[in-house]
Write a structure and sequence with these properties.
The chain is mostly beta strands. The protein has a 23-stranded mixed β-sheet that branches. The longest helix is centred in the first third of the chain and has 5 residues.
């Protein structure tokens, strides 16, 4: 990710284009509204990279970015919209390809790299279709991401993530809920529970969790969980190894089709399928 450029996008001055793709025609785009009385920010972003940052001293919701396109006609239809409806602020990127009747010709393209700043006490709901995305210093986050890497840091309450492809990195959150189709998942420093509802492919690594960790369904890839104050449960794992270390509570694997199961320093009961157990396991699933 090109994080070194985001300060430019979030600054008050003109934005500068990235290298997300070609940028034959480009223009600065932006907008903002007062945040007094706002209870939620909803973001709908299309092609391009995005960074969303909460600030303790912010009094407005501001969006700044660079529109890039293959020709002027496409650039003119590439915009950032910021509007308020009641107590909700909507930030959207408007692109030619959003039109259901749009058809690309040859090597045409249009995208917006966008930076959004908002008060850190506001929850965010975001839908991002393509490109890398970063979220930092937010009250709560619900995000649906189609493609590109996703980085989330310092969310005070729940980080609820649906990610179709690309790596996912969550560092510091109140609690975490994840649905992931492909790419590695890294989760670190969570004050509450971590729930992986579904993971289709890619490795999962979770560490430093004050609550419980639960993997409901994992299709492929390794699972490694360390330093958990509560219990660690895997309901169903199709393939890949499972490793648990420094779990204060119980360690339970209900169903595992293939791959090794290893554990050390488990404070509670160990319950795993009988064909995967060691001699020192304290309990065995029958």
């Amino acid at each position: 990710m090109r994080s070194r450029y985001w300060l430019i996008l979030l600054a008050a001055g003109p934005a500068t284009a990235f290298a997300w793709g070609d940028c034959e025609f480009r223009a600065d785009r932006g907008g903002g509204v007062d945040a007094t009385g706002v209870e939620k920010v909803v973001i709908r972003a299309g092609a391009g990279d995005m960074k969303v940052v909460g600030r303790g001293n912010a009094v407005r919701v501001e969006a700044r970015g660079v529109a890039c396109a293959a020709k002027q006609e496409l650039l003119d239809r590439t915009r950032i919209s910021v509007r308020r409806e009641g107590n909700v602020v909507y930030v959207e990127t408007e692109l030619p390809q959003n039109d259901d009747n749009w058809k690309w010709l040859g090597n045409e393209y249009a995208y917006i790299d966008i930076g959004i700043a908002l008060p850190s006490n506001l929850p965010v709901e975001a839908v991002d279709s393509s490109g890398d995305a970063v979220f930092e210093d937010l009250k709560a986050l619900q995000v649906q991401d189609s493609s590109g890497d996703l980085e989330i840091s310092r969310v005070a309450e729940l980080a609820d993530v649906s990610d179709s492809s690309g790596d996912l990195d969550i560092d510091s959150a109140g609690s975490v809920r994840v649905r992931d189709s492909s790419g590695d998942v890294e989760i670190d420093d969570v004050r509450g529970d971590v729930t992986v509802v579904q993971d289709s492919s890619g490795d999962i690594h979770v560490e430093k969790v004050a609550g419980n960790v639960k993997v409901e369904q994992d299709s492929s890839g390794d699972i490694r969980v360390e330093d958990v104050k509560g219990s660690f449960v895997v309901d169903s794992d199709s393939s890949g190894s499972i490793y648990a270390m420094n779990i204060t509570g119980d360690f339970t694997v209900s169903d595992d089709s293939s791959g090794d199961i290893e554990h050390e320093s488990i404070g509670g009961k160990v319950t795993i399928p009988s064909d995967k157990r060691d001699d020192d396991d304290t309990d065995v699933e029958k």
